[in-house]
Design brief:
about 270 residues; Jelly Rolls; five-stranded antiparallel beta sheet; 2 helices; transmembrane helix; transmembrane; Secreted protein; signal
Length: about 270
C-alpha cells in the first residue's frame, strides 16, 4: 500500500509538471508568432522614390518593398521605425546599367540621433564586377534596446535611416541610371534582450516639438510607428519565462521531496513512547 501511495503521488507530480510545460509552450507561442516579419503592403502604395538627405528620407514600413531610380553617385535615403526587442535587417538590390565599370556600393544605417549603427553581419559593402547586372547588400543590426547609457551607442527605439550610395566608381560612370529595391524586416528577439528602464519618448524627429493648437498637441515630423504602437519598455516575455521557471523549480522540489522521504515508519516498528 505504501508503494501504491508513492506511485500515486508521483503521477500527480508528473501531471502538474506536464500542465506547467504546456503553459510554457502556450506562453512562448505568441512570441514565436511575433518573430515573423509583417506582411508586405499593397504594391500600389509602395514608395517609388528615395530622399536625398536625412530630412527628406522616404518613409517605409517594415515588410514593405520600396523602389527608386537614381543616378550613380547620388545619395539615396529611406527611414523606418524600429521598436524595443526588434532586430532589423536591411536589404538593398541595385540594378546596374548594361555597360559599366567595376563599382563599390554601400548601405549605412543611422538611428534617431543620426549615429551610425554597426552591422552584426551581412554584406554592407560589395563590389560589382564590370558589366554585372546587379549588386545585393544586407545589414543586420543589433537588437533595439529599451534603454541605454548616454555614452553608449546601442540601438534605441525610434526612427532609423538607411543611406545607399556608391563609394568607388570611375568618373565615366557618374550619372548613369540605376534602379534600387529596398526592404526592411525585423525579428522579434523578446525577453532575452530585455533591460531595465525605458526611454520617455522614442527617438523620432519632432517628438519634442509642442504646438499650441487644441486639435493637435504634438507636431511629429515622422509619420510612421510600429503597428501596435511604441512599447512602454516595462513588459517583456521575460516575465513569463521567469514565472514559469520558478513554478517548475518549486514542482521539482516537491517531486524530489516525495522521492526521498520514503514510505514512512514501517508497520513492524512500534511508535516511540
Amino acid at each position: 500500500m505504501a508503494g501504491r501511495g508513492l506511485e500515486d503521488q508521483l503521477m500527480r507530480v508528473i501531471r502538474v509538471l506536464s500542465a506547467a510545460l504546456l503553459a510554457l509552450g502556450l506562453a512562448a507561442g505568441p512570441a514565436a508568432a511575433d518573430s515573423s516579419p509583417s506582411p508586405s503592403q499593397d504594391a500600389s502604395s509602395a514608395p517609388t522614390q528615395a530622399g536625398t538627405s536625412f530630412r527628406t528620407a522616404t518613409e517605409i514600413e517594415q515588410g514593405q518593398r520600396a523602389t527608386a531610380s537614381g543616378s550613380t553617385g547620388d545619395y539615396l535615403y529611406w527611414s523606418f521605425p524600429a521598436d524595443t526587442g526588434q532586430r532589423p535587417t536591411v536589404r538593398a538590390t541595385v540594378k546596374l546599367p548594361d555597360t559599366h565599370a567595376a563599382q563599390t556600393w554601400q548601405i549605412d544605417v543611422y538611428d534617431g540621433l543620426r549615429r551610425r549603427q554597426a552591422c552584426q553581419y551581412g554584406a554592407q559593402t560589395r563590389t560589382a564586377a564590370a558589366d554585372s547586372a546587379s549588386v545585393e547588400l544586407a545589414c543586420v543590426l543589433r537588437t533595439v534596446r529599451a534603454w541605454s547609457e548616454p555614452w553608449a551607442n546601442d540601438p534605441l527605439p525610434g526612427t532609423y535611416y538607411v543611406r545607399l550610395t556608391v563609394t568607388g566608381v570611375p568618373t565615366s560612370d557618374l550619372g548613369l541610371r540605376v534602379d534600387t529595391d529596398m526592404r526592411v524586416e525585423s525579428r522579434d528577439i523578446g525577453g532575452s534582450a530585455a533591460v531595465d528602464g525605458s526611454l520617455s519618448e522614442p527617438l523620432v524627429p519632432g517628438i519634442a516639438v509642442k504646438s499650441e493648437g487644441e486639435k493637435e498637441d504634438r507636431a511629429v515630423l515622422f509619420g510612421l510607428e510600429p503597428e501596435d504602437g511604441w512599447a512602454s519598455g516595462w513588459w517583456s516575455d521575460r516575465w513569463v519565462w521567469t514565472a514559469v521557471g520558478g513554478l517548475l523549480a518549486a514542482l521539482a522540489g516537491v517531486a524530489g521531496y516525495v522521492l526521498t522521504r520514503g514510505a514512512g515508519r514501517p508497520s513492524r516498528v512500534p511508535p516511540a513512547s
